[in-house]
Amino acid sequence: MRLKIYRIAFLAVLLNFICSCSGKSENIIPFLVSLQEANVTLSKMKDGQSESLMLGNGDLYGIIWEKDGRPYMRITKNDI
User: Fold this and answer.
1) pLDDT band (50, 70, 90) for residue 8
2) pLDDT by residue (tens digit) across 22-80?
3) What is the CA 67 to chain-centroid distance, rounded?
4) Where do the H-state alpha helices sit in the chain?
């Protein structure tokens, strides 16, 4: 019985992988005009608390900044 469940799970994962890889790979940026009009720029990203790039959707977000000449990123989720 367990072997049958494992086989079904394996086949489901394999089918999902094949379906996701078989689609067209188009490099289309959604809402390109809006993105260009927003013109988001940063003069510096030296501090993770006050001078950083915030990315996210309100539930999951990241903060990117520069430290010692290298980019750093902190990722967090609001409900944890």
Assistant:
1) confident
2) 555 567 777 888 888 888 777 777 877 778 888 887 788 888 888 888 888 888 887 76
3) 21
4) 2-21, 32-38
Burial class (CB in 10 A: 0-12, 13-18, 19+), 52: buried
CB 53, CB 62: distance < 8 Å: no
Its pTM stands at 0.45
CA distances to 25, 48, 62 from 77, rounded to whole Å, are 30, 16, 9
CB proximity list for 67: less than 8 A, separation 6 or greater: 48
- Which helix (H) or strand (E) is 63 found in, with range? strand 60-67
